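agent: user wants the structure for Heat shock protein family A (Hsp70) member 12B from Colobus angolensis palliatus. delegating to structure tool.
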Amino acid sequence: MLAVPEMGLQGLYIGSSPERSPVPSPPGSPRTQESCGIAPLTPSQSPKPEARAPQQASFSVVVAIDFGTTSSGYAFSFASDPEAIHMMRKWEGGDPGVAHQKTPTCLLLTPEGAFHSFGYTARDYYHDLDPEEARDWLYFEKFKMKIHSATDLTLKTQLEAVNGKTMPALEVFAHALRFFREHALQELREQSPLLPEKDTVRWVLTVPAIWKQPAKQFMREAAYLAGLVSRENAEQLLIALEPEAASVYCRKLRLHQLLDLSGRAPGGGRLGERRSIDSSFRQAREQLRRYRHSRTFLVESGVGELWAEMQAGDRYVVADCGGGTVDLTVHQLEQPHGTLKELYKASGGPYGAVGVDLAFEQLLCRIFGEDFIATFKRQRPAAWVDLTIAFEARKRTAGPHRAGALNISLPFSFIDFYRKQRGHNVETALRRSSVNFVKWSSQGMLRMSCEAMNELFQPTVSGIIQHIEALLARPEVQGVKLLFLVGGFAESAVLQHAVQAALGSRGLRVVVPHDVGLTILKGAVLFGQAPGVVRVRRSPLTYGVGVLNRFVPGRHPPEKLLVRDGRRWCTDVFERFVAAEQSVALGEEVRRSYCPARPGQRRVLINLYCCATEDARFITDPGVRKCGALSLELEPADCGQDTAGAPPGRREIRAAMQFGDTEIKVTAVDVSTNRSVRAAIDFLSN
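agent: tool returned. relaying tokens verbatim.
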């Protein structure tokens, strides 16, 4: 097969065909790995791609930033004591009765676009601005979801502030990350004055597992702009998938640190028991091997029925219910090292806590009019933020068995603005509306029944449950009996009760860590200390390139025929690197060799394509789309004549791609000189 990149003859793909000689393979390597006839990451009966141990960067401390939709924070641990996780200082400000180990994901910029503050400070300062002055300030909140929902994400994507003004999203995210960088480094300097600053920190950023490659690259670009790491030291930054981080943390939890929503204590024994889950698995297996009737023994020894029941495969689901998304992953605990294997590709959707906020906004639109709410948000942005804060405080107290109504404060500016706009007061609006479960309190508040509040949760909660049920129906995850419910939204009693009621009857044990809101953050720190803990992942999509193959009548459609220099080629062939839902081990490489089309060529650029299915034949098939570009930058010395003045021969550039990490990675080498070639995959250039 001769494979030519479809974007033009900027680079030739070297391979085996009846018309060409195959590229020689290095001794000891499988023949198929070095030719264009390579089968990417195939089942076990085919030759496997080469597995290479990931190179680990040197570092003294890991700092993880959990950049959430509604709240964010950081934590760190030193390489000398990796499991001693230090939480960030508690933030100034905050809401009464709410733990302050995270801060709201709120950014405030001056009217000129300069950084002013982040978190509680930004929110409170914006609250105190004069309404007229607030119109000129740029206040951003819950902006992380914009990256997930953007279908054409680029480095020029704009974000809209509360006042309607726009700013490049990359700058907004960079401002936020720079804030965390400065806070974390200051705290590290105070705790460890002798710690050198340069290249001693490994940074970890959390993102939803369902985010696609462009969104992950966007976060990395924002981290470069914020100064977390340089492009030259890109390996000092890791992207952690949020449910994976939670899984890593849950795997280390002590049994008494879990709440079983079925009412059964997961520890099943003494409160002083200190064994972690993975060590308990190993001990339980050994006990089962020695004793046929081990269940009673396991419970009495403190390991517990929960873990004893997981002997068949040790599989579990992690449902990360955050502010913006629900993220599901299924892991299998591997022995003897306690590594994790993903059993099904990450799934989920936009069913986070902000869905409840949107339902409340829709309720206000029903009562006061959609046009009024839009005008109020635009002309009184700070007062709108006050209203959302008041609702958030009451939302946190909602529960399935709560008795009594909930009062939600309306800002005075809302009441006054409505009277001026409509000519009557809000009490009249409530009486005239078709909403009969919200009343007006004499104290100047909206009085909402508990049933009405719980109803606001239902669309989002139902979406979460449906996603979990759909996942459990997959054949790849049969036998799962344990579900970890994590993330900030998992603190909600409404969500906990609904999930347990829907899934508990199926024999699924629903377990919530005690520090459920910090599970991802702490897990991200552990992941940064040992990123190889997730050994196998599932590819969410099929990736490949468009090539030219020798035309075979009867197999290739006539419209794909291309005749060039007397030879007949089939154009638009989708040459697959990795298939959707395929298991890919960390460090596994898919190799391809490319040759510059002409002497002196400085760059080889190949379009990448992706699709959700594994049976696509051509890049023009329905569902196949261009998703990025692989670029190989050749140094001038690599392109010219040799030292003897003779014209150069065909130069082979061998690219190695890894699909088993949290990001798709590529490296390249010039075969003739064995020198590294600058290689990158750009998912934001479309």
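agent: one observation worth passing along. The first strand starts at residue 11 and ends at 13.
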